[in-house]
Amino acid sequence: xxxxxxxxxxxxVIGSEKSQGLADFKESVDRAQQSGDLDVQYQSVTWSRDSxxxxxxxxxxxxxxxxxxxxxxxxxxxxxxxxxxxxxxxVALAVRNCPVPIATAVGHTTDVLMADRAADFSFTTxxxxxxxxxxxxxxxxxxxxKPPAANIQSSAALFEAKRRRYEAQLQERDAALxxxxxxxxxxxxxxxxxxNQLRECAASHTGDxxxxxxxxxxxxxILWFAATLGxxxxxxxxxxxxxxxxxxxxxxxxxxxxxxxxxxxxxLLRTTHRRRKAMRMPAEKPMKNPPASFxxxxxxxxxxVTVRGLRRAIRHRPW
Length: 319
Prior knowledge:
Elements: E1 10-15, H1 20-34, E2 39-44, H2 52-61, E3 70-75, H3 89-96, E4 102-106, H4 114-118, E5 121-123, H5 126-145, H6 149-246, H7 251-278, H8 294-302, H9 307-315
Parallel strand pairs: 1-2, 1-3, 3-4, 4-5
């Protein structure tokens, strides 16, 4: 049995147009045909006709003129009576006299026909024939694409040069990355320093605002205490004359009212002292709508005039 032809580019497939065997063969060689490595032409022949041997002989005689490298007879399996055309001596003779290598793919594994024996090589099924042709085409395509040893050495040298160049570029990038990381670290340190300075300045500024508000509240408290105390003193001084004019000039009444005035003055002094002690303590409860930003808090602190407002400012102090 001959080997597959040295050139396997154009293949003529002869078979019934709608047979399952032809469909199986097409499915097998389809990938090789799509890659462009194989050109497959199909010629329809109805094997059940009486003219099938004559038609086959005519087609095979023109294979060489049509520049086909291989001819393949395809027919699916079936009852032995459906395959009698391939046992026809005239068909076997046409196969033997084919000017190009010819293969048969007729029937199943148990069918061996005269056409199979006359062919250059045969396959048990159309699927087996298609797979064998596809594998051979792929093998030869890979062999053509395989570079010679000189090209391999040249490619290896080129690859080595590229590898060294890429390694040098990688080292340069690593060095640049290290410099960038160092600069980033320095920038982060500088940023941290400036952030600390900013916090310190903000804390100092808020402390100044609190101190200013505290002094404002103290001043207002002193003024309020002085005004209240002055009013009490005036009350005590003017009390005897007022009582005398009203006819209540007894010593008991005057003493009682004087003692009441003194007690009020003492209570005022105690209240003022307690308020001054609580002035620097933050408020116990937070505000329902506390300042949302530093500017809002600063505005609130600048407008503090009461102990309660001062304690709220201390509680919601941003720094």
